[in-house]
Design goal:
Helix content is about 45%, strand content about 15%. It has about 325 residues and is of the alpha/beta class. Helix 4 (about 130-140) packs across helix 5 (about 155-170), helix 10 packs across helix 11 (about 265-275) and helix 10 packs antiparallel against helix 13 (about 305-315).
C-alpha cells in the first residue's frame, strides 16, 4: 500500500494512505467484526489506526489497545485525538495545559502504548492563544509521548499561526491536519457541528501551496456516493451531510460512470478522489460489512488522473 510521509525535526513516519478508523470497536456487539476488519486491513498493507479519547467515552482506545497487545510496536501506527470540547450549548473549550496532559496520559494508558505516533488536538478554540498551546505539545514530543503533532478541525490560518510561533521559538510544529474532505460538498452547519472544519477552496489552496499532509475524515462521504449509485438506502448522516445539494447527486452519477469504466466500486472511486489530492493525503475509513471493506480497499490499487478528478468535480476533463 502507498504511504504518505509525515515528519518533524525529530521523527518521520510513513503512514499508509488508507487509515482505518474506530469501526465501532467501542461497542461490545461490534467488537468481533471490528477486530476482523483490523486484521484484514493489516493483511492488505495498512498500518495506521485512528481513534480519539472521546470515542465511546474512552472505550474505543481501550478496545483498540486490547487488539494491539502483543503486536510489535513498530508494526503499526496509532493516531489519537485529545481535548475534544465538552459538548453543550455553548461548547466548553478543553485546550488548557491540564486538559491536554490529562487526556494524553489517559489515552496512552488505555491504548497500552508508550507513545502516540500522531497526536491531534481534536478541536480548536480560537480564544486560546497558540502561544499557550504549542509549548505544551512540544513538551509531549520531547518527553516521548508523541512523535508528530496534528490539528483536527483547525482552520489553515490557525495552523499557520501555530506553526509560525513554533518555528520562531524552536518548538515542534503541527505536521498533519484532519479535516472533513471528500468529493461531496457540504458545510459545517449542515453536519450539525459548527466546530467541524469542512475543506473549501481557501483551505484547499493553502494545502496545495504548503503541501501539508491531510488525514481526510469521512473520506468516502459516509457511503453517499456508493449508495446513491446503487439505490440503497442511506444512513441519516449521509443524507444530512450531502442529500440537500443537487450537485452531490450529479457527482454521484459521475462516480458511478467512472467506476464502471475502471471496473472498480463507487466507494473505491470516491476514496481514490481523496487519495489523489494535489497534496499528501490519507483517507480515514470504516466499514459496516465485509463487502464494504473489499470494495473500498480497491482504492489502494489505482490512482486517479488529474483529468479524472476534474471530471468527478465538474463533468469535464
Amino acid at each position: 500500500m502507498k504511504t504518505i510521509t509525515i515528519s518533524n525535526n525529530l521523527h518521520t513516519i510513513q503512514m499508509a494512505h488508507i487509515v482505518i478508523g474506530d469501526n465501532k470497536v467501542s461497542e461490545p456487539d461490534q467488537r468481533r467484526f471490528a477486530y476482523w476488519c483490523f486484521d484484514q486491513y493489516l493483511e492488505r498493507g495498512g498500518n495506521c489506526f485512528d481513534t480519539a479519547r472521546v470515542y465511546g467515552g474512552g472505550e474505543s482506545e481501550t478496545a483498540l489497545g486490547v487488539y494491539l497487545k502483543g503486536k510489535p510496536r513498530d508494526s503499526y501506527l496509532v493516531s489519537t485525538k485529545c481535548c475534544h470540547h465538552d459538548m453543550g450549548c455553548p461548547p466548553i473549550s478543553r485546550l488548557s495545559r491540564e486538559n491536554i496532559l490529562a487526556d494524553v496520559d489517559a489515552s496512552l494508558k488505555a491504548l497500552g502504548c508508550g507513545y502516540a505516533d500522531v497526536l491531534f488536538l481534536h478541536r480548536d478554540d480560537i480564544y486560546t492563544p497558540v502561544e499557550e498551546i504549542m509549548p505544551v505539545l512540544h513538551g509531549l514530543v520531547t518527553a516521548g509521548k508523541a512523535r508528530v503533532l496534528g490539528a483536527s478541525n483547525w482552520t489553515a490560518g490557525r495552523i499557520a499561526a501555530a506553526n509560525g510561533f513554533a518555528q520562531a521559538n524552536g518548538l515542534t510544529p503541527f505536521s498533519v491536519s484532519q479535516a472533513l474532505f471528500n468529493l461531496g460538498l457540504t458545510t459545517a452547519a449542515q453536519t450539525g457541528d459548527l466546530t467541524h472544519l469542512v475543506m473549501d477552496e481557501a483551505e484547499l489552496s493553502w494545502y496545495k501551496h504548503t503541501q501539508t499532509p491531510v488525514m481526510a475524515w469521512s473520506a468516502i462521504g459516509k457511503g453517499f456516493f456508493a449508495k446513491t449509485g446503487s439505490g440503497q438506502p442511506m444512513k441519516q448522516h449521509a443524507t444530512d451531510y450531502y442529500a440537500w445539494l443537487p450537485e452531490n447527486f450529479a457527482r454521484a452519477e459521475r462516480v458511478k460512470t467512472l467506476a464502471e469504466e475502471l471496473n472498480v466500486s463507487p466507494s473505491a472511486v470516491a476514496l481514490g478522489y481523496v487519495l489523489s489530492a494535489p497534496f499528501p493525503c490519507a483517507g480515514v475509513t470504516a466499514f459496516s460489512t465485509e463487502e464494504q471493506l473489499s470494495e473500498t480497499m480497491q482504492a489502494a490499487a489505482f490512482a486517479l488522473t488529474d483529468d479524472q478528478r476534474t471530471y468527478l468535480e465538474t463533468g469535464n476533463g
